Amino acid sequence: MILDLHRQGLSVSAIARESGIDRKTVRKYIARARGSGLRTAQAASGGDRSLHSLSRTGHALSRPPEGPVASYIVSFADWLVGRGYALVSLRNQVRMAADFSKWIWQKGIELSDISEEHPRRYLLARAHDRRPKLGDKAALRHLLIFLRSQNAIAEERKVEYDLSPVEQHVLAYEGYLRDARALALETVINYRPIVRDFLNFRFGSGEVSLAQLRAVDVTQFVQQKVSRLNMRRA
């Protein structure tokens, strides 16, 4: 296992995290392999590494990616690294991107024609063969954001509304729950009215300044909710 991960380009620290083995032992195994002439990541040629590793992140795929997104997979991995995603999350997102690219190719869809509708269709088709994971939707959302940043696909068309400061922050929080926390849609929907009520309680129709929030604001909000609940019960 240690040598397999090393051949994929993972660092000693990353291998230790993945395997649960301390770094000293990992180094010992790698050194012993070099001494016995076994092939390690440093001995691999650039061509071989390109087939088994994605840039410096070491996010291995079982085979080279296919389809219109294939040429962007390595850059997508680097983009995720720059945003601080953990190793397991990075691997899952890269594999999801590769699978999505292959599906797009099989459907005969051009890269420039990819839209918000295609991830939804792909996840429905994928659900017939694989059990959906919590971060699947977020992974494809991140991929589309990245592709737009590379001008590979068109920007999403949005209908502009004159939103209040509270609604703007509610939408931003929803995006955080979906993208950073990868929460299910049902959970996001349940959080939405609570956040909206709290911001309206604290700021009303004025500007929202999250820096001004204090613990006492939460306490007073909860107390108000409890008192109203008790009045209804009475």
Quaternary structure classification: single chain
- Elements, N to C (H/E): HHHHHHHHHHH
Q: What would you report as the Rg, rounded to the nearest angstrom? A: 23 Å
Helix content: 55-70%
Given the structure, what is the number of helices?
A: 11
What's the overall geometry? globular
Strands, count? 0
Average pLDDT for all residues: 80
Main structural class: mainly alpha
Q: Mind describing the biggest β-sheet?
A: none
Q: How far apart, in Å, are the first and last alpha carbons?
A: 64 Å
Strand content range: under 5%
Characterization of this structure:
By secondary structure, the chain is mainly α. The chain is built from eleven helices and no strands. The protein is globular, with a radius of gyration of 23 Å.
In short:
With 234 residues, the chain is mainly alpha-helical.
Write the topology of this structure.
Layout lengths: L1 H6 L4 H8 L3 H13 L10 H7 L20 H10 L4 H20 L10 H10 L9 H14 L15 H15 L5 H19 L11 H19 L1
Helix pairs in contact: 5-6, 6-8, 9-10
Question: Which features would summarize this protein structure in a list?
Answer:
234 residues, mainly alpha
